[in-house]
Amino acid sequence: MDVYEAIEKRRTIRTFRQGVSEEQLRKLLLAGVNAPSGSNVQPWEFIIIDDPTIIEQICQQTLKKPLSLDRAIRQKNAYRNCTVIAVCNKKGHGIGRKPWMNIENIASTWMCIENMALAATADGLGIQISILREEHKIAVEKLLGIPEDYELATMVLIGVPAEIPRKREFGAVRPDFSWLHKDRFGTAATL
Questions:
Q1: Is the dihedral of CA 46, 10, 37, 61 positive or negative?
Q2: What are the chain's domains?
Q3: 159-to-10, 52, 62 alpha-carbon distances in Å
Q4: Residues in Cβ contact with 9 at an 8 Å cutoff, skipping those fewer than 6 apart
Q5: pTM over 0.90
Q6: How close are the terminal C-alpha atoms of the chain, in Å?
Q7: CA dist., res. 9 & res. 147, Å (int)
Q8: Which residues of 101-129 are buried (b: 16+ CB within 10 A; e: fewer)?
């Protein structure tokens, strides 16, 4: 599958039949870390989580958000039968930059995650990004022993899909290039 096809076919998978093999995981992680990073800081760190107790504790944090019962059940089921990876981002800055310029590291880490998502899709695997916020994120960072100079970017769930990826269900599909402007925001551009 070429990269354009992987981009088109990538979908969030919510149920898995099984996790990935060690060789598949190795390949996906190496695809991820080939992402660019500001000043070549390479701000990412990964934690492979296979302890069922820890996975359950992480899952409980995801369920503390206000969710409908149906959505809560789907969220909990997503953590079953898959490989669970915590992706961490180094706080701070690149070489010679101000400490408040953390955006470069965040952007680099998310490009790494996108590389992993596209590689997983190209290999016929499914992926879900499970974001924790506020006190739930802090609780998981503490649970995983993430040092103070790092933060949890997201939980990545990867595995063999147990479902056929569906077309996007939520939100309107924006017409191609309706988001493109010329010179100033609001001035339509065409290609």
A1: negative
A2: 3-165 (3.40.109.10)
A3: 13, 16, 19
A4: 1, 121, 165
A5: no
A6: 26
A7: 36
A8: ebebbebbbbbbbbbbbbbbbbeebbbbb
- 86 backbone dihedrals φ, ψ, rounded to 5°: -90, 125
Beta carbons within 10 angstroms of residue 176's beta carbon: 8
Q: Which tens digits make up the pLDDT trace of 36-89?
A: 998 888 999 999 999 999 998 998 887 666 666 666 677 778 899 999 999 999
CA nearest to 120, candidates 14, 48, 32: 32
Alpha carbons 22 and 123: distance in angstroms, whole number: 14
- H/E segment holding residue 86: strand 83-90
What is d(CA 24, CA 121) in angstroms, rounded to the nearest whole number?
Answer: 12
Amino acid at 103: I
Residue-wise pLDDT for 95-138, tens only, equals: 556 665 678 888 999 999 999 999 999 999 999 999 888 898 99
Confidence of residue 94 (pLDDT cuts 50, 70, 90): low
β-bridge partners, 87: 46, 154
Q: Express each pLDDT in 162-175 by its tens digit.
A: 987 766 666 667 88
Coil, strand, or helix at residue 125?
coil
Is residue 31 within 8 Å of 116, Cβ to Cβ?
A: yes
